[in-house]
Amino acid sequence: MKKFLAMVLSLVMVLSMVGCASAEGFSGEIKVWVADATVEFTQQQIENFKAEYPEYAGITVTVEPVGEGDAASNMITDVEGGADIFGFAQDQLARLVAAGALIDVAPENAEVVKAENDAGSVSAVTLGETMYAYPMTSDNGYFLYYDKSVVTDPSSMEAILADCEKAGKNVYMEINSGWYQTAFFFGAGCTLTYDVDDSGAIVAMNCNYASENGVKALKAMIEMAKSPAFVNLSSASKATNLGALISGTWDASAVQESLKDNYAACKLPTIAGFQMGGFGGFKMLGVKPQVDEAKLAACDALAAYLASGKVQTARFEAVGWGPSNIEAQKSEAVQADVALSALADQLQYCIGQGQYPGDYWTLATALGDDVIADKYDNATDEELLAVLQSFQETAGSYVTAQ
Question: CA nearest 38: which of 61, 63, 57?
Answer without folding.
Answer: 63
